[in-house]
Amino acid sequence: MMRSALLSLPLLALVAGCDLAPAYKQPHPATPSQWPTGEAYPAATDQPAGLPWRTMIADTHMRAVIERALAANQNLAATVANVAAARAQYRVQRSAQLPTLTGDAGATLARGITQSQTDTSSYNVNAGISSFEIDLFGRLKNLTRQAFEQYLATEAGMRSARITLIAETANAYLTLASDRDLLTIARDTVASGNRSLELTRTLFNAGLAAASDVSNAETIVAQAQSDAAQYTTYVAQDRNALELLVGGPVQDEDLPQSLATLDPAIAITPAGLSSTVLLQRPDVLQAEHQLKGANASIGAARAAFFPTITLTSALGVASTALSSLFTGGALSFTAAPQASLPILGGTNRGNLAYAKAERDYYLATYRYTVQTAFREVADGLARRGTIDRQRAAQARLVAASATSYRLADAQYRVGTDTYLNALTAQRTLYSARQSQVATVLTDLQNRISLYEYIGSDAGR
């Protein structure tokens, strides 16, 4: 009978109690179901949303740098450690739903030293359940659920961090390439400016050019030299930023040569037809798991108003003789159930109010996260829909400026036009080439941003 009673104790852990947590329903995202349309936006496509980053980026050197960042970036390593910590906390909380089995053995020996005292000895071996809470009202179950949702939230946060790191590394790589292009343009302008300056000084010494022409020629050279020094600094700083993301030095052969080499190697990530893809974005999933965890916390706070039932039991043997310790007559059984009920619930009421406020906070956070994700993709699509036209116009501007400068410079050299016109044309070409680099950079970074904003790749 006693053995049957002891064997039935672990079954109490399986008794399904009440669940006082509110029924969870996924909130309405409060965003349009379709992407915006209009003159600024590209035509809708029925391609599946999202793109794996290794498919998006075809350049082998850029891929290698991103792979290194995923393997050695310290911020990502810290995020991975947080996931491991959350998983361990969930396991600790889950273990509270299961009984803890304990065992002990002991012996007491006493030897008499007078005739009135006798030698005594006792032996005991016990095994039992120590302070097991019977979860009739779901307090432990909801605390476990809250810990589990927190673990899932940190895991989703890690996937979001991976996507962000991929995008940051790619953008740093593109920025380095653009500054290298700008440095090349500045050095080209210094070289062409020096040729014009040398000619102008020769003409001035021969009495065929004014002193103002020499000064004007010096301005474009000085400006380009200043820009070259600045872009040299930028290139060095860009490399430092890239190596910080990568977590170590980047070899020269893995550095980008120019934007032109990367332009055909970065694909455009499709956004799909429906904005519901955003519900699978890692940061949105993270916000939803936090909301679910807060919902479970309400159940745990409500359960605190009801009695807490704990059970301590032991089955063992005791004897004054070691040889008869495990005989039938030595068997003993104890059980000590205990129930406690809060009389004054001020603390519990405060905890319940706090849990409800936390749920409202995470509900608002979830909705705002979805709305922010929609805005980011919409902004990216607005840029996507106009960038090709801007690039084409910028290319025409550079071509026209180059022609204008070539003609003005030739006319100046044969003495049929003033140096001022040649100088103006040279400055226009210099500015147009710089703007073209900025436009190409915007295009390539927009492709990376769409990958990041859609977020369906999950960092794979």
Q: What is the H-and-E element order?
A: HHHHEEHHHHEEHH
CATH topology of the largest domain: Outer membrane efflux proteins (OEP)
Q: What is the strand arrangement across the widest sheet?
A: 1-2-3-4
Shape summary: elongated
Beta-strand content estimate: 5-15%
The percent of residues in helical segments reads 55-70%
Helix count, DSSP H or I runs of 4 or more residues = 10
- Mean pLDDT figure: 85
How does CATH name the architecture of the largest domain?
Up-down Bundle
Class based on secondary structure composition and strand pairing: alpha+beta
Largest sheet: 4 strands, antiparallel
Description:
It is built from ten helices and four strands. The two termini are 59 Å apart. It is α+β, with helices and mostly antiparallel strands. It has helices at residues 2-8, 53-56, 60-72, 74-95, 139-205, 211-246, 259-262, 282-303, 346-413, 419-454; strands spanning 101-110, 120-134, 308-319, 331-340. The chain has two domains: 17-97 and 136-306 and 347-454, Outer membrane efflux proteins (OEP) (Up-down Bundle); 99-134 and 307-340, Single Sheet (Outer membrane efflux proteins (OEP)). The chain has a four-stranded antiparallel beta sheet, with helices on one face. The protein is elongated, with a radius of gyration of 37 Å.
Give descriptors for this structure.
460 residues; alpha+beta; Outer membrane efflux proteins (OEP); 4-stranded antiparallel β-sheet; 4 strands; elongated
